[in-house]
Amino acid sequence: MGGLGQKQNGRVVRLNKECPDDIDGIVDSIRGILLTGGVQSLTVKEGEPISYERLVMPGDEILPKDSTESFAELTPFQVIRNVPMEEFSYEEHDLGTANAHERVMNAFLYLAVESWAVTHLLVSPSSRFWKWLGLPLSRPGTSGKLQYFCNAKIELDASLPDDIYILCGARTRHATIAEIGCSLKCAID
Q1: pLDDT by residue (tens digit) across 94-125?
Q2: CATH fold for domain 76-187
């Protein structure tokens, strides 16, 4: 980047990022935006996405995580297929005889130990996940009553089998689906 008095060859682009509901999430989002570099302006308005202008130099590309708009037409399952996915083996983690609650908690802890915050839980609309845990829910996320599970946003995707759940991890607690950096595929017995 040039200094004062030198001509800038880049272009300014306007981007939007989903605004979290709480102050910690907003601060984390603003910090992430500023760390991308080249930020010219940043606007936070209640009830609107965080809007910012960024100088993009020739040859630089705007990453999908910098704009959630690029994911508007994709399903959550399509988005996470583009990030590293591990398969969580209960037997490998000495959980062969563990109950469903212990297995889910250990999957959450596995990602936490790897420095990932579990931000999204991806299940099929007809998932057996809730019954497996012994919860009296058949279709959370659709009625508006349960939108989060252990602070992970519930995402429904019909292309996912009903005997699988996927934990999605990001580097910040309030990440959007576009900011997911890893996923952990888990089986429902």
Answers
A1: 887 889 999 999 999 999 999 999 999 999 98
A2: hypothetical protein PF0899 fold (3.30.2320)
The single residue listed with the structure tokens 């209960």 is: 90
Output DSSP code: residue 8: P
| Residue of 104, 120, 105 whose CA lies nearest to 179 | 120
The mean per-residue pLDDT over the stretch 139-148 comes to 65
Show the DSSP H helices in 70-171 as ranges.
76-80, 100-113, 129-132
pTM, two decimal places: 0.64
State the alpha helices, DSSP H only, in the chain: 23-35, 76-80, 100-113, 129-132
Q: Which single residue is written with the structure tokens 């935006």?
A: 33
Q: Which residue has the higher pLDDT, 173 or 142?
A: 173
Domain borders along the chain are 11-69, 76-187
Count of CB atoms within 10 A of residue 147's CB? Answer: 12
Residue that is written with structure tokens 């009553």 in the block: 145
